From TrEMBL:
This is adenosine deaminase. The keyword Hydrolase applies. Its EC number is 3.5.4.4. InterPro entries: A_deaminase_dom, Ado/ade_deaminase, Metal_Hydrolase. It is an enzyme of class 3 (hydrolase).
Length: 384
């Protein structure tokens, strides 16, 4: 995407068919990075206050720069854009503003529950402590929730505290997450370069989290394959897979042509033991279609959305969920992700409802709250 044809997805209306607004449908967001969802104008404002240089002078061209840089086909190159967003998230005021606007933007897109993930260790360059940055983000989240309520809306948000897998300080970040579990934190994650940094490197952190009953979701099956997913499940005790798209490597699809010994066109699907384990335990897959294209996570299957194994996983009964990953970098919203999936695979309103119910079931809320969330989704889709 170039500056010339860039048009921000935020605020755009997406429809199913000719007139049904996807934006207005109740949605659940499980995989959305705080430092990947900034408004371009906010980056400009905060960088001016901090005296930082930016790669573009105004909001439109800056948004276009992010979209262009992120379309590299490489997760490593994709991650480099975060140097810019993280640089303006180093003060309590900056963190609180970004978090508040994050909540407001999710609500504007119809999200009724969201889990926002971020890595506190990346926000310490101006002297803040780990606990101070978590408190600043939580303050911004609460301000955003209050602003939504004041306007007659309703949204709920939980923090997912992430440890950067290359820094080998998982136990410290796990302890941080547990300290704040009564103040907004609902779970733990590990992020950063996946290939070469398996969850097993942070086994002590995951042991600690298990001892304190804090749920985990792990980035796995994006830049690395089945071994990474296996480590997330058995070293990380993960209850969800962050992306998890490469789980499809453990699924064998065989097509037979008419006239062969099978007697006609047939498709045979065989699940490997890892795929079967994930399916049987209904572990949610946090799939992010646009991001998965941009980072090359689906390169072995193709380079277009139609090549994404999303539909294969859905048709086989996996608990697929739809996510944005990084709304700024991918120039997307949850409504847009649903719209392009519906357009590509022919999904209808019932399919979109299933994706939201899957996300509600996979959320880190208490069971009673998950049930209430599911009821809100059913009621909202029923009124559509």
């Amino acid at each position: 995407m170039t500056t010339a044809n860039f048009e921000a997805a935020a605020g755009k209306q997406f429809t199913l068919g000719s007139d049904l607004s996807i934006n207005s449908l109740p949605k659940v967001s499980l995989h959305d990075h705080l430092d990947g969802g900034l408004r371009p104008q906010t980056i400009i404002d905060l960088s001016t206050e901090l005296g930082l240089d930016l790669p573009a002078p105004d909001a439109a061209s800056l948004g276009a720069w992010f979209a262009s840089q992120s379309d590299s086909g490489s997760l490593v190159e994709y991650l480099k854009t975060f140097d810019v967003t993280i640089s303006v998230m180093q003060t309590p005021e900056g963190l609180a503003r970004v978090a508040r606007e994050f909540v407001e933007d999710l609500h504007a897109d119809g999200v009724i529950y969201g889990e926002v993930r971020w890595a506190p260790e990346q926000h310490l360059t101006r002297g803040l402590s780990l606990d101070e940055v978590v408190d600043a983000v939580q303050g911004g989240i609460e301000d955003g929730i209050a602003a939504v309520a004041a306007a007659g809306g309703r949204i709920r948000i939980g923090q997912l505290v992430s440890a950067m897998r290359q820094n080998d300080n998982g136990l410290e970040i796990a302890q941080l997450a547990v300290r704040h579990r009564e103040h907004g934190v609902v779970g733990f994650d590990i992020a950063g370069p996946e290939d070469g940094f398996p969850p097993s490197r942070m086994r002590t952190a995951f042991d600690y989290l298990a001892e304190h009953y804090l749920p985990t979701t792990v980035h796995a099956g994006e830049a690395a394959g089945l071994d990474s997913i296996r480590s997330a499940l058995f070293d990380g005790r993960t209850l969800r897979l962050g992306h998890g798209v490469r789980l499809a490597e453990d699924i064998e699809v065989e097509e037979t042509a008419a006239g062969d010994s099978a007697g006609g066109d047939s498709t045979f699907v065989t699940l490997g033991p890892l795929a079967e384990w994930v399916k049987d335990r209904e572990l949610a897959l946090e799939l992010s279609p646009t991001s998965n294209l941009q980072t090359g996570a689906i390169a072995q299957w193709g380079s277009e959305l139609v090549d994404h194994p999303f539909d294969l996983l859905y048709q086989l009964g996996f608990r697929v969920t739809v996510n944005t990953d990084n709304r700024l970098m991918s120039n997307t919203t949850l409504s847009r992700e649903l719209a392009i999936l519906a357009d590509t695979f022919g999904y209808d309103l019932g399919d979109l409802e299933v994706f939201q119910l899957n996300a509600a079931a996979g959320s880190f809320l208490p069971v009673e709250d998950r049930e209430e969330l599911a009821n809100r989704i059913v009621a909202g889709f029923g009124d559509a």
